[in-house]
Write a structure and sequence with these properties.
SETD3_SETD6_MTase; SET domain-containing protein; 483 residues; protein-lysine N-methyltransferase activity; 16 strands
Length: 483
C-alpha cells in the first residue's frame, strides 16, 4: 500500500539509509552491515560482516530495543495511543486479539499511514512506518500467477496454497465487513471509486509476517526489524542465533566456534527441520543444500460409504491427513485421523448423544463402551487391543494407497510442466518454474521411498499371527483386501 498512487509501484527506501533509521531508533550494529552481498546484488539484502568475526569473542552483532519487537503485546501498547488503529483492532473482535491478526492489521495500518496517496492521514506513525519501506515486495507462492500455480499440480503445496488463498480472502472480507462501519474506513479504504485498500495489500502484509516472523523465547511469534534481514542456512551453515537479553532487547549473536570473514554472510536458521514444501510456501525458496523434501503432509477423507462417516467427521479433533517424515534410512508417519478411518462399529467404535450439565446435547465417541476423549491419543488405545496388528495393517494399507494416488497425480502432470514455456516473454517466470520443478523432484523421491518402505512393512504385518488368525476366521463378507 506504500505506493505512489493506487496503481504505481511500491515505494522503497535505499538500504544505505538504513543505518540512519537504526541510529534514530537506538538499534546498534557491531561489526556488521545490511546490504547485498558483493557479486550477488540480485539476491537482495542480507546481513554482512564488516570485519573478521569469531564466535565466542564478539559482542552482540545487533541489539534491537524491546519496544521495537513487534509482538501482540507491542501492538496493543501502540493501540493505547492510536485511537484510529484501536477502533480498527477492536472491530475485529477475536481475530484482533490473536498475534497474527493484530500484527497484520498493525502492518496494514502503518502502510496506510505512510501512503502518500491517502487523502487524509489516519493513524499515528511509529518506527515501522518507515521500516516497512526497506522491506522488499515478498514474492511467495500466494503471489504466483495462475499459470505458475499450475506448475504445482500433484505437489502437496498445491492444496495448501489453495487453502491459504481462501483463508486470506476470508480474512480480508472479515476486515472489510468489520471496518465498513467506521466512517473514515468506509470512505478511504472501501469506497468503490476512491477506496485505497486492495486484496494485494493483505497478501503483502501476510507475506511480511509469514516470511519474517520469528519465535522468541518469552515473547512468542513476533517480527524484529533488521534481524529479519538475515537469510537462512541450516545445520552447520547457520552463523548466528537470536535471543532476548536481560533487558528484554532482541540480540543477534555469532555462534560459538563460528568464524565469518570480512564481507561474509551472517545467516540464521528459519527451522532446520522444515520441509521443502513449507520453505517454499513460507519463504519463497528451497535451500540449495536440501537433498530431500524432509517431510510432507497428505490429506485424507473418510470414505463416502463409511456408515459412521458423518459421526467421525463431527468428533474428529485432528488434522484430516498424515505427515510423512524422512528419518534415517526409513520413513515415519504421524496422523491421528487415519485411525478414525481404520476402525468401525464391528471393531468396537460407537457414538451416542449425551446431554451435558448445561442441558446441551453432544456427540460422544466410545471404544468398546469406554469414552474416547479426543482422537489425538487414539493410537495408544488401539495398541492395547488384541487386534492391534490388524488395525496397524489397515493403517499402512491406507497410507500406501494415498501415497500411490499422490504419485500418480505428480507424474501425471510432469509432461505438462516440462512443456510449459517459461522465462522472458511468457507468463511463467524462470525462478517459479525452477522452484516448482525442484519441489516436484524432492517430493516424488520421498513419496517413492515411503511407498517402498510401507510395502515392506505391510508384508511383515501380513505374516503376523494376529492378522493370519483374523483373516482365517473372517467370513466372506468380512474379508479385507490389503493388496
Amino acid at each position: 500500500m506504500i505506493r505512489d498512487g493506487k496503481q504505481h509501484a511500491w515505494l522503497s527506501l535505499p538500504v544505505d539509509t538504513l543505518p540512519a533509521w537504526a541510529a534514530l531508533n537506538s538499534v546498534s550494529f557491531d561489526g556488521i552491515k545490511i546490504g547485498p552481498l558483493p557479486g550477488k546484488e540480485e539476491h537482495g539484502c542480507t546481513v554482512i560482516a564488516k570485519r573478521h568475526l569469531k564466535g565466542g569473542e564478539e559482542p552482540p552483532l545487533m541489539t534491537i530495543p524491546r519496544e521495537l519487537i513487534l509482538s501482540l503485546e507491542r501492538v496493543h501498547e501502540h493501540a493505547k495511543s492510536d485511537s484510529d488503529f484501536r477502533s480498527v483492532l477492536d472491530s475485529l473482535d477475536g481475530f484482533g486479539r490473536t498475534a497474527r491478526g493484530a500484527i497484520l492489521t498493525f502492518l496494514l495500518m502503518q502502510s496506510f499511514t505512510a501512503c502518500p496517496s491517502a487523502p487524509r492521514k489516519k493513524g499515528i506513525s511509529s518506527p515501522f512506518t518507515e521500516y516497512l519501506k526497506y522491506l522488499p515486495m515478498e514474492m511467495l507462492p500466494t503471489f504466483w500467477a495462475p499459470a505458475e500455480c499450475d506448475l504445482l499440480t500433484g505437489t502437496t503445496l498445491a492444496p495448501a496454497l489453495t487453502a491459504k488463498l481462501n483463508s486470506l480472502n476470508r480474512e480480508f472480507e472479515q476486515l472489510r465487513e468489520a471496518t465498513s462501519s467506521l466512517p473514515w474506513c468506509a470512505e478511504q479504504w472501501w469506497d468503490e471509486v476512491d477506496g485505497i485498500l486492495e486484496f494485494d495489500d493483505w497478501l503483502q502484509v501476510d507475506a511480511f509476517y509469514r516470511s519474517r516472523a520469528l519465535e522468541y523465547p518469552g515473547v512468542g511469534d513476533c517480527m524484529v526489524p533488521c534481524i529479519d534481514m538475515a537469510n537462512h542456512s541450516s545445520g552447520t551453515g547457520t552463523a548466528a542465533i537470536y535471543e532476548v537479553d536481560d533487558q528484554g532487547n532482541a540480540v543477534l549473536l555469532l555462534r560459538d566456534g563460528k568464524t565469518v570473514e570480512e564481507n561474509g554472510e551472517i545467516t540464521i536458521t528459519y527451522g532446520d527441520k522444515k520441509g521443502a514444501c513449507e520453505m517454499l510456501f513460507s519463504y519463497g525458496f528451497i535451500e540449495d543444500e536440501m537433498e530431500s523434501a524432509r517431510e510432507l503432509f497428505l490429506d485424507l477423507s473418510i470414505p463416502g460409504d463409511d456408515p459412521l462417516g458423518r459421526a467421525k467427521a463431527a468428533v474428529a479433533n485432528c488434522a484430516p491427513g498424515f505427515k510423512i517424515v524422512e528419518s534415517g534410512d526409513g520413513v515415519s508417519w504421524d496422523g491421528a485421523y487415519i485411525w478414525l478411518i481404520c476402525v468401525n462399529e464391528e471393531d468396537g467404535l460407537s457414538f451416542q448423544i449425551q446431554q451435558t450439565v448445561e442441558g446441551n446435547r453432544e456427540l460422544i465417541a466410545t471404544w468398546k463402551d469406554e469414552p474416547v476423549h479426543g482422537f489425538e491419543d487414539f493410537r495408544s488405545i488401539l495398541e492395547q487391543d488384541p487386534l492391534w496388528d490388524v488395525y496397524h495393517l489397515r493403517a499402512v494399507s491406507v497410507l500406501q494407497e494415498r501415497i500411490a494416488s499422490q504419485l500418480q497425480d505428480l507424474y501425471g502432470s510432469d509432461d505438462q510442466v516440462d512443456a510449459a514455456q517459461h522465462g522472458d516473454g511468457t507468463n511463467i517466470r524462470e525462478r517459479a518454474w525452477h522452484l516448482a520443478k525442484r519441489l516436484r523432484f524432492l517430493e516424488s523421491e520421498l513419496l517413492e521411498k515411503a511407498y517402498s518402505y510401507y510395502e515392506d512393512e505391510k508384508l511383515q504385518l501380513m505374516q503376523s499371527e494376529t492378522v493370519l488368525r483374523y483373516l482365517s476366521g473372517a467370513d466372506a463378507e468380512q474379508d479385507e483386501d490389503f493388496s
